Amino acid sequence: MDIVQVLGFTFVALLLVVSPGPNGLLIAKTVPTSGKKAGFANVIGFLSAFYLHGALSILGISVILTRSAEAFFVVKVLGAIYLIWIGLKALTGAFSKEKVTQAKIDNNSKKNLRKAYLEGFLTNALNPKVSMFYLAAFPQFIPAGENAILYGFLLVSIHSFMNMAWFASMVIIMSKLTVAAKNKVFQKVLKAFTGIVFIGFGVKLITLDTK
User: Fold this and answer.
1) Model pTM?
2) Quick one: pLDDT band at residue 28, thresholds 50, 70, 90?
């Protein structure tokens, strides 16, 4: 693998990272209602899922997933159900009379962090599009040979680092919007918007096909 291949993969991965999707939406939902630490927990969940998908792709298991209609359908439905579930939870929260306060966030910080990590992890772990990306990219950017596995994890690390930098920056920016974040109307509107969009992502995932 030479520098040209690395730069080529980096450019392709960067386009994927900055494109609108469930990850950015999850950050936008989490930070105003659960705090900056929860947002970073989301990001760590993203990275964990990327390495899981990367390992599965490198070991060839994801080939079975994307080439088996039954296996792909199961993962696709599970991922769609999870995204829709997040959306419904956000919509329910938007119409709930309960107000999230900073004191409540602080008192339940450990619980919030675990929940945020799990949401970030599952949002990506149950998304077969991540494995499809790696399977499409690896043959183009990894040279054949005994170091293929090493190069594969190098590319996964590059993709993960860019995600960390992009979404960590988003967490910091969102956390600066303290006045808006504490506004009850803002929280409800944000939850309603993210709920609708998450449901839309879930429905879109149902229609995803590898053909």
Assistant:
1) 0.70
2) confident
